Amino acid sequence: MRLTRRGKAVVGVCVAGFALAALSGARALNAVVLPGLVALAAGVIQLRYRPTPTVSRSARKVGAVGGTDEVTLSFSGVARPFVGVVSDRADDGLSAPDATVRAAVGGEPVTYEVTYESRGERELGPVEITTGDVFGLFETEMVLSETDRVLVYPRVRELGGAIRDELYALSAADAPESRTEFDRLREYVRGDATRDVHWKSTAKREELIVREFAPDAEVEAVHVAAGSTPDAADEMAEAAASVALALLDADVPVTLSLPDRRIEADPNRRGRTAVLEGCALASGGPVAGADADVVVRAEPGGTRVILGDRTATFADLRRGGSSRRPDRSTRRAPTGGSTA
Predict the structure, then answer these.
(1) Cis bond before residue 176 (omega within 30° of 0)
(2) The predicted structure's pLDDT at residue 210
(3) Centroid of chain to Cα 132
(4) Is the distance from CB of 51 to CB of 94 less than 8 angstroms?
(5) How many CB atoms are located within 10 Å of the residue 195 CB?
(6) Residue 271 half-sphere exposure, CB side, CA atoms within 13 Å?
(7) Nearest alpha-carbon partner for 140 in 35, 56, 52
(8) Pick from 198, 196, 216: which is nearest to 207 by CA?
(9) Whole-number pLDDT of residue 220
(10) pLDDT value of position 190
(11) Residues 136 and 209 both lie in one domain
């Protein structure tokens, strides 16, 4: 608890009143000093017995670089709302310019926006409340220790159509279809081998019907390895996440080797989350697996993506139009025979 400017002025007036009383008599105490002392005492009592509220924070547990979300602070444990300046601390990597507001604590919730500026595990809180007495003579600070953590994912970029086709081709080369187990009949699609046409069903339906065979083995995972200098870890994480998610979006499993962790990701929600979490927390370091199908190297001068004999900058791979996600049949080479 500390005196405000107004409180210091009242104290000064009371001291002056005592001086005047010494010179002019006790009436000066009644006229000036006593009201000031009563106000000071009331302020002290009011703040001393003001309860410290509890706070609950409504905030997302995950976010992405460049994203913005709304945070809500709700206060409880206060029988009568009081006015104060509420300030919620935002960790480095988070921007919350409106996180300090004057509000009625215990009344309506306090809301503000937070922007995710850099990847990693970030923290919101604690909340500080600066409040004063009704006369404005004293103010005190309350620190509410409740905090929440948010995991900020790296930014994920859309890759150009050419590089995506090359990534899909890696999986196609390692996953030949077996023709030993019949799966189902379906309509002919341009590119199907004519030897797969089921002529009896075609004659009945008066349209081309082909046989589809179930593969013996699952599609092989594409190995993506990434590394960086210590000051280019963010660029590495962005490029590695973009490449890995492009493969997962095409139903291709991914093995992602980062300098401090290795992730086996299947093309489902859990796999995508594992890739994003790993890239959010990854540190810079040398490439772990230089013989990988795709190698990402991030340096101060730029980020390179090595795909077989081809090397390109990550900035170039992001340019150009986006390609439509192909289905499994367009990523696999024909098993033989002529095409219509």
Answers:
(1) no
(2) 79
(3) 37
(4) no
(5) 12
(6) 19
(7) 52
(8) 198
(9) 78
(10) 61
(11) no
Find all residues with CB under 8 Å of 184, minimum gap 6, and list them: 211, 212
Residue 201 confidence (pLDDT): 81
Query: What was the pLDDT predicted at 265?
Result: 94
Token pair 């080369």 in the structure block, residue: 173
58 and 142, same structural domain? yes
Global pTM reads 0.74
* Strand spans (E) along 5-156: 54-58, 62-64, 68-76, 82-90, 94-95, 100-105, 110-116, 120-132, 138-144, 148-153
* Cα 136 from Cα 163, distance rounded (Å): 66
Inside any domain, residue 159: no
Whose CA is closest to 87, among 43, 121, 55? 55
Its domain, for residue 225, covers 219-331
Instruction: Answer whether residue 169 is part of any domain.
Output: no
Q: Name the CA radius of gyration of the chain, rounded.
A: 34
pLDDT at residue 323 in the model: 34
Token couple for 275: 């890739």
- The confidence score (pLDDT) of residue 74 equals 95
Asked if residue 319 belongs to a domain, the reply is yes
> Tokens 């340019």 sit at which residue?
319
On whether both 205 and 296 belong to a single domain, the answer is no
What is the C-alpha to C-alpha distance for residues 227 and 225, in angstroms, rounded to an integer?
Answer: 7
Closest listed residue to residue 167, CA positions, set 243, 261, 116? 243
**254 within domain boundaries:** yes
3-state secondary structure (DSSP) of residue 110: strand
Q: Where are the alpha helices (DSSP H) in the chain?
A: 5-24, 27-28, 34-48, 161-174, 199-205, 233-249, 269-281, 314-317, 328-331
- Residues of the chain with pLDDT below 70 are 24-32, 171-183, 189-195, 213-219, 319-340
User: Can you give the length of the chain in residues?
Assistant: 340
How far apart are the C-alpha atoms of 69 and 153, rounded to whole Å? 14
Domain CATH number, residue 146: 2.60.40.10
- If one counts the domains in the chain, the total is 4
